[in-house]
Specification:
There is one protein chain. This protein is α+β, with helices and mostly antiparallel strands. It is built from 13 helices and 19 strands. It has helices at about 5-15, 50-55, 105-115, 220-230, 240-245, 275-285, 290-295, 325-335, 355-370, 385-390, 410-415, 435-445, 450-465; strands at about 30-35, 60-65, 70, 75-80, 85-90, 130-135, 140-145, 180-190, 190-195, 210-215, 235, 250-265, 300-305, 345-355, 375-380, 400-405, 470-485, 485, 505. Strands 1, 8, 9, 10, 11, 12, 13, 14, 15, 16 and 17 form an eleven-stranded mixed sheet that branches. Strands 4-5-7-6 form a four-stranded antiparallel sheet, with helices on one face. A hairpin with a 5-residue loop joins strand 2 and strand 3 (about 70).
């Protein structure tokens, strides 16, 4: 179904809906999400639903600020007496939802269980530089490193990890216990997750009694639920056309912010066609991003020059060397030896994507734009789990995906492009190798001097803009649609659900 068809269907359906809300749901926020969280164990879950819900249930040592800096959280302070040692001083008087005190033993266990295989998790590589963790007393945690690691603090913040009770095993996700402002009540896979207010939180207790995260895979249905009043809020869960249509509803409010989610495509650089950087750059030059942003996103996205969000301290200032230029694209393809055949086609390549509506629409537009320079783009769309499995196993030529959250720290360049980060050790899924980049990411990761790190990351981004193992397309704005009875709602750049900590639900 096209975006315009979806808008028509929505407008038609809205004429026939009424408002129905269960009276037993007083002071319960019905929050719409697209899919069930993969894991409510904060040591394991890496998908968007998992991370954002986990941030409400669990606390981390540090908290991410809106400017991509960090501030004290469970750790009230920390020191680095030498480049391989971090000492954290914990907040006292914090308890888990079961009343058990949260101490250094729990922090040590959380990190050790990720590292030693107690839980099977992709996050184990995040702590590859940790040699050992000590807990000399209930309020002190000492992390000893094998080598300096400037990304460690970020990896100890919310979204990256949450502290679990000592002894939490692989079944922990079924009954998660944290220390955050909300505590777990129940979960039904592919239906809902229910949280309730934690009155014993060390933070200010939420005003909302309960949050019901309702899983609604279909975007049109999500829009209808908001319009008829059976749902209260959705974050980044509607197409731009649907948001535009809902703006006319006086019972709904829309909050937005410049987002950090970045849409990108990645190339399999070992592919016989795509191994030539001229071909990859030609594809980039054939894409009219401004036209796609206007047509697909109704201008609620911004062109991306890097994986890092706009305004980040390490963001490249080199500008975008791959702006729309179809004539230059054709010239590069000619120089690479790919001249048009009798039918005007130079070669075929396949783009894999998920069945998400906006991604499928993007694929169709890219197909038409690349056709103009003689590239036949074949599209293969799969349900997300199948698509993602293919991506992680390298079964693709080109794929389209989004970075969500992980691109807010510059260590993303090691994780996504270092030759040591081929899956399963990282996300270098296109098997890109550049020894200069490898040396730079290692150097940047081992210094705590931010100005020196920035200089290294600027060079890294310039290398990537030239080699193009991956092409950042645009940053997608954070858009929150909510009923006006839910107040205190703010859109965060990261699209988190943090506003639930302070929002108020009126009768």
């Amino acid at each position: 179904m096209s975006s315009r068809t979806a808008l028509f269907t929505l407008a038609l359906a809205l004429a026939f809906v009424g408002c129905h809300r269960d009276p037993r749901e007083a002071n319960t926020v019905n929050f719409l999400i697209e899919s069930s969280p993969a894991s409510l164990d904060p040591r394991v879950g890496t998908d968007e639903s998992s991370e954002h819900i986990d941030e409400l249930i669990f606390d981390s040592l540090l908290h991410k600020r809106g400017d991509f800096g960090l501030e004290p959280w469970l750790a009230m302070s920390w020191q680095t007496p030498d480049p391989r040692t971090f000492i954290f001083h914990l907040r006292t008087g914090v308890t888990f939802h079961n009343g058990q005190p949260l101490t250094a033993r729990d922090v040590k266990y959380t990190l050790d269980s990720v590292r030693d295989g107690t839980v099977i998790t992709a996050k184990s590589g995040t702590f590859r530089t940790v040699d050992r963790v000590d807990a000399p007393d209930p309020a002190t945690v000492i992390i000893h490193l094998k080598q300096p690691d400037a990304a460690l603090l970020w990896n100890l913040s919310d979204g990256a990890i949450g502290i679990v009770p000592y002894g939490s095993d692989r079944d922990f996700q079924q009954h998660p216990i944290g220390s955050g402002p909300f505590r777990f009540v129940s979960q039904q896979i592919d239906k809902e997750v229910v949280l309730e207010r934690n009155p014993a939180t060390w933070q200010t207790a939420p005003h909302i009694d309960r949050v019901r995260f309702s899983v609604v895979p279909d975007a049109i249905t999500r829009a209808l639920e908001l319009r008829k009043g059976s749902a209260d809020v959705a974050v980044n869960a509607l197409t731009a056309d649907m948001v535009y249509s809902l703006r006319s509803d006086p019972q709904l409010a829309i909050e937005s912010a410049l987002g950090t989610r970045v849409q990108y495509v990645t190339f399999k650089v070992t592919d016989p066609i795509l191994k030539d950087p001229r071909v990859r750059r030609a594809i980039a030059l054939a894409i009219d991003r401004q036209a796609i942003i206007h047509a697909l996103w109704r201008d609620t996205a911004q062109p991306a020059d890097s994986l890092l969000p706009r305004g980040h301290w390490a963001e490249s200032d080199a500008g975008n060397a791959n702006s729309f230029d179809p004539a230059q694209s054709r010239a590069l393809l000619d120089s690479a030896g790919y001249r048009p055949g009798k039918n005007g086609v130079r070669f075929h390549v396949t783009l894999k994507s998920s069945t998400d509506e906006s991604t499928r629409l993007l694929a169709a537009i890219l197909q038409q734009q690349l056709k103009q320079v003689g590239i036949a783009l074949d599209i293969r769309s799969f349900e997300f789990a199948t698509f993602y499995a293919d991506v992680t196993h390298g079964a693709f030529q080109i794929y389209a995906l989004r970075w969500i959250g992980g691109n807010e720290d510059p260590d993303i360049f090691r994780y996504a492009f270092a030759s040591s980060s081929f899956p399963p050790k990282g996300a270098n899924r296109g098997h890109y190798v550049n020894t200069t980049l490898d040396n730079l990411v290692q150097q940047a990761g081992e210094t705590y001097d931010q100005s020196a790190r920035r200089a290294d990351y600027i060079q890294i981004q310039r290398i990537l803009a030239e080699d193009l193992p991956s092409l950042p397309l645009w940053y997608i704005d954070t858009v929150v649609v909510h009923r006006r009875r839910l107040t205190g709602v703010e859109a965060s750049r990261s699209g988190t659900f943090d506003f639930l900590r302070t929002a108020v639900l009126h009768p």
